[in-house]
Design brief:
Strand order of the largest sheet: 1-25-24-23-22
Shape: globular
CATH topology of the largest domain: Neuraminidase
Largest sheet: 5 strands, mixed
Radius of gyration: 22 Å
CATH class of the largest domain: Mainly Beta
CATH architecture of the largest domain: 6 Propeller
Number of helices: 0
CATH superfamily of the largest domain: TolB, C-terminal domain
Distance between the termini: 52 Å
């Protein structure tokens, strides 16, 4: 039973909110790729500023805002006419403090001052996604090990705080209250902790069970609910009062996800779509599987025996489904996979290879679903894994907007950059073609193929045609 108010707001996926002044907020809309200026009381949008893949927005003095777009590699102030591109950086989170706005560069594990990006603060974080500026130091929440780093302004490590009682904890948000207390968001158990002076993590609040992808704990100045956290999966921002109780929820709207396996112009293709419960629909164009959206479906592939392998990111596993019977079995689990995001079937062995991004590896399972071995990788944000028919493996890294092509056995890596006009985050499907070629596409970029060492556009197909 809900004990807080819910309000629908006219944005897609609210990923962060900055409270600018009396009655005004700025909302980072992760779906639409805009910073939406809105009225706090009604949620009605009054203006939109484009910022592709925006993840974070923070208030600046004078009721202005600063926001960062991750895979667009762009930062923008509301009082500037345009954004600033930073191709070598991956800005995931922003905060404001001494020296103006700062942002977290996940590609280089650095906290960067927007006023002087040439003078970053290097951090020891393995996966820098959230930080807070508090007084004369930085506080960094690290993953996958639950660690909070306490850093001096020059990056000197002052302390390393480990959440020892919760080895599976995921620290996905951190902020500093007006009194100087450091609050930490832990996603696995949906808890907020206070970091004590002696390094202990003291539980302060438990958030509702309905939210499993919580991120970005933020402190605002004053108001009835001075804290918020976001859950992009449910497109929700939870507003918290001074006692960290949920007092209101803002809910956005977004289109359902659709995943493809194979050339959808042929009858042996398969499709997975978001829904409420598992279901299989058979048609002449191939099976369509409805997957519970709460499980976070991220990829689908067809095994040689016709079984469908579906990556369930938020469930930390694969689901293997036999379309003819509807029978399902699970592969993996959080001890083996942590937020997997892509897979493919090795054409030589029939074994599934799965991207395990936070641990920086590819996990190879046998046909029975047992983990056989792992391959360590050095990709910052891998998203897609595909095998072409010549046995080569291709991994798309969103952080650098390029594929890495490996010979069989993940040998001899060779970088293959996407065309300059293509943003990797807009790639929605990747399929192998004959003779080692690769087909890449998405709604915003159309279709293109990499063959004979170069990218070339692919025309739209007519009825009865296929990409072969």
């Amino acid at each position: 039973m809900l004990n807080h108010a819910e309000r629908l707001i006219p944005v897609g996926t609210p990923g962060d909110v900055a409270v600018l002044g009396p009655g005004d907020v700025a909302v980072a809309d992760m779906t639409e790729g805009v910073v939406a200026s809105a009225a706090a009381q009604t949620g009605q949008v009054q203006g939109r500023t484009p910022l592709h893949d925006v993840r974070s927005v923070v208030r600046l003095p004078g009721d202005q805002w600063f926001a960062v777009g991750a895979f667009s590699r762009e930062a923008r102030r509301s009082d500037a006419g345009s954004g600033v591109r930073m191709p070598e950086r991956l800005p995931l989170w922003a905060d404001s403090g001494v020296g103006g706005p700062w942002f977290a560069d996940a590609a280089n594990a650095e906290i960067v001052p927007f006023a002087d990006p040439s003078a970053p603060v290097r951090t020891p974080a393995r996966h820098l996604s959230s930080f807070a500026v508090g007084g004369d130091r930085f506080w960094v929440a690290d993953r996958p090990a639950p660690v909070v780093w306490e850093l001096a302004p020059d990056g000197t490590v002052l302390a390393r705080h480990v959440m020892r009682d919760e080895p599976r904890a995921e620290l996905t948000g951190i902020c500093v209250s007006d009194s100087g207390a450091v609050l930490v968001l832990e996603r696995h158990r949906r808890r907020i902790y206070r970091l004590a002076a002696d390094g202990r993590f003291i539980p302060c609040a438990v958030l509702p069970r309905a939210y499993h992808r919580l991120r970005g704990l933020r402190r605002h100045s004053g108001g009835a609910h001075p804290y918020h956290v976001a859950d992009p999966r449910t497109r929700t921002v939870l507003w918290l009062d001074e006692r960290l109780r949920v007092s209101e929820a803002w809910i956005g709207h977004a289109a359902s996800r659709s995943l493809l396996a194979g050339d959808w112009h042929r009858p042996d293709a398969a499709r997975a779509v978001d829904g409420e419960r598992w279901a299989v629909l058979h048609s002449p164009a191939g099976p369509t599987v409805t997957v519970p959206a709460a499980l976070g479906p991220r990829d689908i592939r067809i095994a040689p025996d016709g079984d469908l392998y579906i990556v369930l990111r938020d469930a930390h596993r694969l689901e293997v489904l036999t379309p003819a019977t509807g029978r399902r079995r699970s592969v993996g689990g959080p001890q083996i996979l942590l937020y997997p995001c892509g897979l493919d079937i090795d054409p030589r062995t029939g074994e599934p290879h799965v991207l395990d991004p936070l641990r920086g590896r590819i996990v190879v399972f046998d046909r029975a679903g047992r983990p056989r071995h792992v391959r360590q990788t050095h990709h910052a944000y891998p998203r897609w894994l595909r095998f072409t028919r010549d046995g080569a493996a291709w991994v798309l890294d969103l952080a650098v907007s390029q594929f890495t092509r490996y010979e069989a056995g993940y040998r001899d890596p060779e970088p293959v950059a996407l065309p300059p006009h293509v943003d990797a985050v807009n790639v929605e499907w990747v399929e192998p073609l004959a003779d080692g070629a690769l087909l890449v596409g998405g709604a915003a970029i159309g279709a293109m193929a990499f063959a004979s060492g170069r990218w070339c556009p692919v025309p739209a197909l007519g009825a009865g045609e296929s990409y072969g």
